Amino acid sequence: MLAFHLSSTSGVPTYVQIVDQVRQAIRLRRLEPGDRLPTVREVASALAINPNTVLKAYRELEHERLVEGRHGQGTYVVGSFAGPSPGTLDGLRARLETWVDRALAAGLSPEHIRAVVDTTLHRLLDVEESA
Amino acid sequence: MSDALVAEGLTKRYRRTFALDHCSLAIPEGAIVALVGPNGAGKSTLLHCATGLTRPSGGVVRVLGGEPGDRTLPGVGFLAQDAPLYRDFTADELLTMGNGLNRDFDVAFGRERLPKVGVPLDRRIAQLSGGQRAQVALCLALAKRPRLLLLDEPLASLDPLARREFLSTMVDAVAETAMTVVLSSHLVTDLERVCDHLLVLHAGRVQVFAETDQLLATHKILIGPGGPRRERIAGVDDVVHATDAQRQSTLLVRLNAQALEPSWEQRAVTLEDLVLAYLAANVETPPDNRT
Amino acid sequence: MTWLVWRQHRKQLLFGVVALLVLGVFFVGTGGPIHDRFERLGLPDCLPQTIDATVVAELFGDAASVDDATAAITRCAQTARAFLSDYQIVFEVGGLLLFLPMLAGMFWGAPLVARELEHGTHRLVWTQGTSRLRWAATKIGLVSAAVLVMTAVFAGMLTWWITPVIQTSGQRFDFGVFDIHGIVVFGYTIFALALGVFAGAVTGRLLTAMATTAVAFLATRLVVMLAARPNFLPTETVSVRLDPARAERWNLLHGDWILSRQDPPGCAKGATDCVDTLTMQIHPAHHFWTFQAIETAIFVALAICLVLATIYWIRRRIA
Questions:
Q1: pTM higher than 0.90 for the full model?
Q2: B78 and C127 in contact by Cβ < 8 A?
């Protein structure tokens, strides 16, 4: 079952965080079409948030055609993202973990590692986008 | 949709002080209201008037369409400040008590729910932690299957984990039954994620009552050059609160439909900003129209 | 609601039952020997005779009968006096028992409402689905019923225990004796209970309520005992040819309550064997139960007023 995690300091509205996390889960194939999302009640209760907030998120996801609410049965994933296979994703993830281990072994602090990753991503992805 | 709680000119006097001063508000059914204000603002008094524990000196209060008291109490769940419970009773005995005092009382709900949140049914209340006591008190109120739930500073003496578990239980019940909730605290950060309406009380008066989404959308913080004199700013309906330093002024404003004056730096408000601004606004305005 | 009252007061009930058992053991243990002695000394038989003989002899001045009567009287009186001096303790213990109703008011009445107010649990129990009227009436009603039952047991034991001594001394009307005899103890207890409940509801503090109950109870009892009781019924005036020195014995043997007397002018003070007409204002002995009923009724009426005042206070004033 999908577990949500909310950050209260990010300034991002709660419902947007939920939408993002569902989207992310679909993108990473943790949620496949046909899977049922947790009920509004379950999510609201687990996170201690207003049920309407969860409703709002689910409606937004419905609007994006990622999920579909079936009356009386719950909300089901219907969409997916085109992307690499799970195998490719796992391989990439493993190599990232290796790199992080090496960086730690070389004596980099977590903040330093994050800084390196951030600047590299900025450089590469910004270049990618403008290309 | 009818209103769960209505007050018109509600006033409560104790000798020289006004605990409530001509309060008027209408809470729609299904709302989850954060009732915020400093100590002595009148939050408890308002809730006590709604439950019939206090009789108003003037004005009117209606809950679920009726007079506060015996006739409407079956539909109203109340958790008083400091969660008063019979200390030498066990949780199970308190449920039995609730069953005996209420016509419709779901004892099974309490017996199922409490062990799930880590409260043993057969231990005396005095031996439970603050968080467990709050859960028992909440369960007693919820077992009545109320349409309106009134909670007087329920999170005050709870640690963050207990606070989270309390709100989780409450939200679960709300999701199930769509009840109306009024939850008071003097910290709005506790209630931000759960509540969809904000009610700010200060010195017995209603400072603001509106949907939180609407408040967040229609208010902004403006930062600009210092100086107390201010002409009308384009896009601003009302300056709720202003802080003037020598070189910089910070304003919390309510917007109107027009475009906002671009020379001011803009920032989004949080609920806490709103509460503080509306509380401070009261201090600046002189008291008036007290009949 | 009944379950709740039981659950909240079961410790008090247990305490009461234990106290009754302890008192029971004491009464039976000490009362048995008293009763035995009373019978063996022949007092039940000689006391009534003594009264009749005295009345006849002294009213009609029959010298011969006086001698016979006097002999019997003297013997009986001596036996009675010896018996009484041995069991003086009964009066002393009885004096202590005067305070039991007050304790009932302090420990069972005062906490009834005061404890709820002090701990804030009234905000829990008055916001359920039961009206304050029903809550107050049920609580007060059930606790009073239990207390009355315990009082009945206590009064029964006490009456059995003191009967020999009271019968011998003949002082049923005396202050302190009247009050532990008969049915008045019911009136005192229910009054003390109502007083405690009222004080608890109005002050909202247990200790203050207990202190107020004690003071108000004692004050009321004293006022009724000293000022009201002598005036329950008009006094009767009795004139007797009697040696003024024997006026006391008149009281002792008859059980009347002498309120005042006018000594005959002919008999000089301290003169012995002076028989003359003595006038007394008395409440005759056979009015004893009427007086008991009147005093009980007064305290029951006060109790009812206090209960009504309590219910009014709970419903309208605590807001």
A1: no
A2: yes
Spell out the per-residue pLDDT of chain B, length 291, in tens: 588 999 999 999 988 888 999 999 999 999 999 999 988 889 999 999 999 999 999 999 999 989 998 889 999 999 999 999 999 999 999 999 999 999 999 999 999 999 998 999 999 999 999 999 999 999 999 999 999 999 999 998 899 899 999 999 999 999 988 899 999 987 788 788 899 999 999 989 999 999 998 998 899 888 888 665 567 777 788 888 888 877 888 888 888 888 777 888 888 888 888 998 888 876 543 334 333
Please give the order of strands across the beta sheet that includes B205-211.
B76-79, B148-151, B180-185, B32-36, B197-202, B205-211
User: pLDDT tens digits for B46-75?
Assistant: 999 999 999 999 999 999 989 998 889 999
Residue C299 contacts residue C187 (beta carbons within 8 Å)? yes
**Distances B288 to B21, B103, B206 between C-alpha atoms, Å:** 11, 46, 14
B167 interaction partners in chain A (CB closer than 8 Å): 48
Q: For residues C187 and C170, give the distance between their C-alpha atoms in angstroms, rounded to a whole number.
A: 23
Q: Are A44 and B171 inside 8 Å of each other by CB?
A: yes
- For A96, the token pair is 């990232």
DSSP A35: P
Helix/strand/coil (H/E/C) assignment for every residue in B183-235: EEECCCCCCCCCCCEEEEEECCEEEEEEEHHHHHHHEEEEEEECCCCCCCCCC
- C-alpha–C-alpha distance, residues C238 and C284, integer Å: 10
Is B20:B182 a contact under the CB 8 Å cutoff? Answer: no
Helix (H) or strand (E) holding B34: strand B32-36
**Measured between alpha carbons, how far is B36 from B184 in angstroms, rounded to an integer?**
6
> Which token pair is A69?
């609410």
Contact A48 B174 (CB under 8 A): no
The nearest alpha carbon in chain A to B172 belongs to A45
Please give the DSSP secondary-structure letter assigned to residue B259: P
CA torsion sign for C104, C109, C112, C115 is negative
B134-157 pLDDT, tens per residue? 999 999 999 999 999 999 999 988
**If you measure CA to CA, which chain A residue comes closest to B32?**
A50
Side-chain-facing half-sphere of A120: CA atoms under 13 Å:
6
Burial class of residue B156 in the structure, from the number of CB atoms within 10 Å of its CB (0-12 exposed, 13-18 middle, 19+ buried) = middle
Element housing C57 (H / E): helix C43-60
A1 token code pair: 């079952």
Residues C182/C188/C190/C193 CA torsion (nearest 10 deg): -150
The per-residue pLDDT for A88 is: 79
- Look-up: residue for tokens 């009968």? C65
Question: Phi and psi for C238 in degrees, rounded to 5?
Answer: -125, 135
- A in contact with B (at least 3 C-beta pairs within 8 A): yes
**Residues C70-104: pLDDT tens digits?**
666 667 767 777 777 777 777 778 778 888 899 99
Per-residue pLDDT in tens (0 to 9) along chain A, 131 residues: 678 888 877 778 889 999 999 998 888 888 888 889 999 999 999 999 999 999 999 999 998 888 888 888 888 888 877 766 667 778 888 999 999 999 999 999 999 999 999 888 888 887 655 54
User: How far is it, in rounded angstroms, from Cα C102 to Cα B220?
Assistant: 68
The Cα of A19 is separated from the nearest Cα of chain B by a number of Å equal to: 16
- Compute how many other C-beta atoms are within 10 angstroms of the C-beta atom of residue B72: 19
- By the 10 Å C-beta count (0-12 exposed, 13-18 middle, 19+ buried), B169 is classed as buried
What CA–CA distance (Å, rounded) separates B253 from B250? Answer: 10
Mutate to test the interface with B, among C9, C119, C123, C135 (most CBs of B within 10 A): C123
